[in-house]
Design a protein that fits this description.
CATH architecture: Beta Barrel
Strand content: 35-45%
Radius of gyration: 17 Å
Strand order of the largest sheet: 1-2-3-6-7-8-9-10
Number of domains: 1
Length: about 140
């Protein structure tokens, strides 16, 4: 290949354009508008989400931390930049499935699926692998 730099540049620009058009990879307000969650695609192709903003993220001048995680090694992490959506896989153009969602208020992990609905996401958290045993929240586009 005569111009490997040009080839690498084209690959980078093409992959950036694909990610920019991914309807999931955005920043979303939680249903109560008290936090923003950034959904991003990892190197393995799965989707993750982390808290990037909180309306009330500090108490007595210190960042709020996760004290309820069932994994003791993860307790004490600041909520900011904490992963809350884990390992979702693309099922089709509008749905991600097969992952987990972490509820920091209860310290529980739930199975989850996410559906893109133009200006919002429907996030369904459920137990025992049965979607009908769960709850759906809407996350609104924050950008």
């Amino acid at each position: 290949m005569k111009h490997p730099f040009l080839f690498v540049l084209c690959v980078i620009l093409a992959s950036s354009a694909v990610l920019a058009n991914d309807p999931f990879c955005r920043v979303w307000f939680s249903e109560d508008s008290l936090s923003k969650i950034q959904i991003y695609k990892a190197v393995n192709g799965n989707y993750f989400g982390k808290i990037v903003w909180m309306k009330d993220g500090y108490e007595n001048g210190k960042p709020l931390v996760d004290n309820k995680n069932p994994n003791k090694a993860l307790r004490g992490r600041p909520f900011l930049n904490m992963p809350v959506v884990l390992d979702l896989e693309r099922k089709n153009d509008t749905q991600l499935t097969g992952g987990k969602v972490y509820d920091p208020t209860s310290g529980n992990y739930y199975n989850c699926k996410m559906t893109h609905k133009h200006t919002y996401l429907e996030l369904r958290g459920y137990i025992w692998g049965m979607s009908f045993l769960g709850r759906t929240t809407k996350w609104w586009l924050a950008e």
